Q: What sequence folds into this?
């Protein structure tokens, strides 16, 4: 029993560790999609966040690194927003271009700074803070309440975004922009400005997710280390049904699925590991198909809104 | 709307061209120098498999004066495109560094009979398509013997990218090496489904460490940094744990935790390949291994004494037996029978 407790506790630690970056990126993307913008360039913000975090931490220490990572992710999203919202280009194609461009650019910056053949950077890492009392709860305590500041930010964002989106006038306006930009505009809501801000917010949290990868989880940077987490975050938003509470649960579920297949493979090597990696996506498709009750994307998602 | 569409295309083209430039694509070759190109499916900043190939390309450029170019290609469609564009631009020798390039190289080889295509860990040979089989399993076997002699828990772990023959082959040999010195050792194996995902590799390694493993080897690219970090953190937690490097001498990549590397001397093999190509003698699959000195198990001099002297002499004996042909290291045969030959030949 004690061994089972230790095992399930360490599984949860891994699930939360892998889930936090997904939660951060997906919570931001929830706001962006609620405003009607799907940002496929989120992956670009994550990798910029990882690199910005690494460079920032070398210059300013781990917390400066987190800030630099968020900022770098926000800037990548600003580039996306400038085209997809301000100039009204196609959101999907623009996002893809931002992601591909970001993966290439970050690689070029990394290689020019640290040499073409690379090295395993040892970055100053963000330490974990144990929350008094809560961290002592058996099994869940160490997993959820002995984490770095990025995890606590993700927890905090859930009620804050829930309150903002569903309890405030600005949240209502933002959702109106996502449902029907025409109606929102007629009601005097500045559609372009709302969408720009929502996209940049998503970039900041995705950048923070990237900085979590380099400064909290691994203590190093590698090209392409975002490894699709920005795209997974978009699936997480779907599975979480565009609701912060659902999104954070879905992020934990994706993290848990990944942690589970590592734990199972370590016990039995003959496991068909790709099946376990695919499971969360199957569930996301099921969520899109509406098998888990009412689930509807914002009506105006990916819709164009010409200025003027 | 038309304006917007064109603007968008320009934007996309701009991003793509910048990305391509960032990956190191090089304009067409036009001077008289022989020109050599390298394709990798991942970043060369992995301090491992791809970094070794990039060093090989640079060595060819520096010591032979050839013009060299490198390009990173991600998808099979890009493989074809890159082979064709290099062949069209006058590159006479093109390396595709990984077995995933085999099909595209075979197609390009038929289209450009005057160009030589070399496929690392390739499987099919023709007049101008030449696989290189590195024989890394032999070095991996010796690394396994070292791992088996230092493990205290009797459990060792292997973290791989995707279950392809070149990765699987090194793991089979590593496991055999471990069991040669410790027959009842437990050998864990995890594939993470990616070569670059540092955080996935770290969690996979951490899961093996929790399962009792105290010596880990990897066969991933940049994701190896996550394996080394997991070992480092296990030590911070008070445990004794070691990692082994793979594909390239990685002893200096994480010198605190790496006890040795199963290494390929890719630069030397690439240079020899380029020399043979210039001399017109490059043909058939190039099969290397311990015998050619092109792979080796390299203990990390920073940790002298950790691998017991007795174990090192057993490793030397095994190396001699492999060279003498009296010890068969389990391997996966990459090479497919040539067309027209029966599979048993």
A:
């Amino acid at each position: 029993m004690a061994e089972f407790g230790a095992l399930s506790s360490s599984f949860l630690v891994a699930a939360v560790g892998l889930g936090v970056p997904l939660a951060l990126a997906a919570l931001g993307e929830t706001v962006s999609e609620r405003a009607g913008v799907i940002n496929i360039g989120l992956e670009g913000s994550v990798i910029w966040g990882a690199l910005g975090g690494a460079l920032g931490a070398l210059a300013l220490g781990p917390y400066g690194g987190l800030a630099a990572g968020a900022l770098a992710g926000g800037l990548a999203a600003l580039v996306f927003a400038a085209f997809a919202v301000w100039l009204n280009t196609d959101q999907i194609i623009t996002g893809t271009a931002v992601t591909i461009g970001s993966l290439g650019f970050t690689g070029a910056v990394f290689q020019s700074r640290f040499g073409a053949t690379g090295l395993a950077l040892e970055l100053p890492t963000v330490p974990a803070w144990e929350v008094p009392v809560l961290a002592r709860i058996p099994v869940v305590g160490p997993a959820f309440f002995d984490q770095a500041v990025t995890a606590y930010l993700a927890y905090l964002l859930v009620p804050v975004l829930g309150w903002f989106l569903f309890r405030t006038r600005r949240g209502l306006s933002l959702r109106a922009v996502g449902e029907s930009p025409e109606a929102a505009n007629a009601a005097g809501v500045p559609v372009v400005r709302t969408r720009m801000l929502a996209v940049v917010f998503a970039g900041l949290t995705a950048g923070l997710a990237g900085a979590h990868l380099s400064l909290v989880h691994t203590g190093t940077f590698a090209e392409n280390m975002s490894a699709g987490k920005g795209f997974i975050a978009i699936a997480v938003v779907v599975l979480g049904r565009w609701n912060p509470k659902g999104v954070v649960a879905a992020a934990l579920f994706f993290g848990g699925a990944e942690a589970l297949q590592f734990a199972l493979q370590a016990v039995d090597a003959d496991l068909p590991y790709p099946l376990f990696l695919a499971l969360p996506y199957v569930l996301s498709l099921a969520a899109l198909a509406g098998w888990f009750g009412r689930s509807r994307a914002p009506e105006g998602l990916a819709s164009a809104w010409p200025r003027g | 709307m038309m304006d917007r569409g064109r603007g968008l295309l320009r934007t996309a083209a701009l991003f793509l061209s910048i990305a391509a430039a960032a990956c190191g694509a090089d304009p067409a070759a036009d001077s008289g120098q022989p020109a050599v190109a390298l394709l990798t499916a991942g970043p060369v900043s992995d301090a491992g498999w791809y970094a070794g190939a990039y060093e090989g390309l640079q060595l060819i450029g520096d010591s032979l004066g050839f013009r060299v170019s490198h390009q990173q290609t991600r998808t099979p469609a890009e493989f074809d495109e890159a082979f064709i564009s290099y062949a069209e631009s006058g590159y006479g020798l093109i390396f595709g560094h990984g077995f995933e390039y085999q099909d595209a190289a075979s197609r390009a080889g038929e289209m450009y009979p005057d160009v030589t295509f070399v496929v690392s860990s390739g499987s099919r040979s023709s007049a101008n398509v030449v696989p290189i089989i590195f024989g890394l399993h032999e070095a991996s076997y010796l690394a396994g013997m070292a791992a088996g002699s230092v493990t205290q828990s009797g459990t060792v772990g292997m973290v791989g990218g995707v279950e392809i023959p070149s990765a699987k082959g090194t793991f089979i040999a590593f496991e055999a090496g471990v069991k040669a010195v410790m027959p009842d050792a437990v050998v864990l194996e995890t594939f993470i489904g990616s070569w670059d995902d540092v955080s996935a590799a770290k969690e996979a390694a951490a899961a093996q460490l929790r399962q009792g493993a105290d010596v880990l080897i990897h066969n991933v690219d940049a994701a190896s940094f996550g394996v080394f970090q997991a070992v480092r953190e296990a030590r911070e937690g008070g445990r004794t744990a070691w990692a082994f490097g793979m594909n390239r001498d990685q002893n200096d990549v994480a010198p605190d935790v790496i006890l040795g590397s199963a290494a390929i001397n890719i630069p030397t093999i690439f240079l020899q390949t380029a020399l043979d190509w210039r001399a017109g003698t490059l043909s058939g699959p190039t099969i290397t291994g311990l015998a050619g000195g092109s792979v080796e198990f390299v203990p990390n001099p920073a940790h002298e004494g950790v691998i017991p002297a007795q174990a090192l002499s057993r490793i030397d004996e095994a190396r001699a037996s492999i060279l003498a042909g009296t010890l068969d290291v389990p391997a996966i045969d990459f090479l497919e029978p040539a067309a027209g030959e029966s599979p048993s030949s």
DSSP finds eleven helices and two strands in chain A. The longest helix of chain A spans residues 42-86. Chain A touches chain B through 55 residues (CB under 8 Å).
